[in-house]
Amino acid sequence: MKQGGGMSAADGAAFREVARELTGIALSPEKDYFVEGRLEAVARARGLSLGELAQAVRSAPRGALAQEVAEALLIAETSFFRDPGLFEVLRLQVLPELIAARRAERRLALWSAACATGQEPYSLALLLVEHFPELEGWDVDILATDLSQQALDYAASAVYTQHEVNRGLPARLLVRHFEREAMTWRPRSAVRRLVRFARVDLLRPLPPLPRMDLVLLRNMLIYHDVETKRGVLASVRGRMRSDGRLVLGSAETTLYLDAGFEPSPELGVYRVKDAPSEAPGGGAGGRPDAGAEALDRGPSAPREGVPAVDRGAPCI
């Protein structure tokens, strides 16, 4: 039976199942309108109907087309400085505390763990360049990862439309730290070179990563079941410094999921209580084919060391 003359219930179930298997997201039948809307373009690009697309996915549930379908169903809503109050907390409390703790070693590692099209990691870079001139000469690394290669390619290109920069980016930062290219905008090199991109599946055992001082994992856990949330949190915590901070979305929490974190006074920020090494073969979801992969830098060029912060023009 077709729903509203479009996708059949059986085809919707097939698409939701491949999304669950390949990305871990749990979509209910009530979300089939969303599934249909997202996949119409995929089917059209292949010259297929939605029914034919579903049949192709059933025939090869772990093939390239199935992966494309699953990634199309990832929800990648993002913008520059999304939740400005949180970035104020980072600027006024979290980052100053971490910088003070790392002053002797002069190293800072930040991770945007579900970066989508890159606005979040570039917002972090802008925050550092604009407000923390003392980081000039430090080893500063912002790792930005996502499951979607398409989103990572877009993020690494660092080319944003007028509509995208209008969403959350203050005009003074746009003028100071972006270059206009025809009808689009691109962060200047002092911002771009702080960020590196890599494809990382948080539901699989993580590749070798540096110990992180700050992890932003916002609005990813809400799409997964309890056991998957627990696995992701434990896996991420295993890559954090013993005094590291985790930032979650406003509708997310570590409470009753991972006792290794404790809430900070700042809303949405959690401190590490215990950061053990991840157990061999560990990873969220326990998927049987989840072998550890070497860190794939995706579309970004490999770097010899991490560049120091270039403060650009003096801060206001």
Relevant terms:
2 domains; disordered C terminus; seven-stranded mixed sheet; globular; disordered N terminus; three-stranded antiparallel sheet; 316 residues; 11 helices; alpha/beta; Chemotaxis Receptor Methyltransferase Cher, domain 1; Rossmann fold; 37% helix
Short précis:
The protein has 316 residues and is of the alpha/beta class.
Walk me through this protein's architecture:
The protein is built from 11 helices and 10 strands. Helix 6 links the parallel strand 1 and strand 2. The protein has 2 domains: 64 residues, Chemotaxis Receptor Methyltransferase Cher, domain 1 (Orthogonal Bundle), CATH 1.10.155; 203 residues, Vaccinia Virus protein VP39 (Rossmann fold, 3-Layer(aba) Sandwich), CATH 3.40.50. Helix content is 37%, strand content 16%. The strands form 2 sheets. A 7-stranded mixed beta sheet has the order 6-2-1-7-8-10-9, covered by helices on one side. A 3-stranded antiparallel beta sheet has the order 3-5-4. The longest helix has 18 residues. By secondary structure, it is of the alpha/beta class.
In terms of per-residue confidence, which ranges show pLDDT below 50 for 5 or more consecutive residues?
A: 1-5, 277-282, 285-294, 296-316
- CATH topology grouping of the largest domain: Rossmann fold
CATH architectural arrangement of the largest domain: 3-Layer(aba) Sandwich
Q: Output the helix-strand order.
A: HHHHHEHEHEHHEEHEEHEEE
**CATH homologous group name of the largest domain:** Vaccinia Virus protein VP39
Shape, principal axes of CA atoms: globular
Name the quaternary structure.
single chain
By DSSP (H or I, 4+ residues per run), the number of helices equals 11
Determine the fraction of residues in helical runs and give it as a percent range.
25-40%
Integer-rounded radius of gyration:
20 Å
Largest sheet report:
7 strands, mixed
Spatial gap, N to C terminus: 61 Å
Strand order of the largest sheet: 6-2-1-7-8-10-9
What class, by secondary structure content? alpha/beta
- In total, the number of domains comes to 2
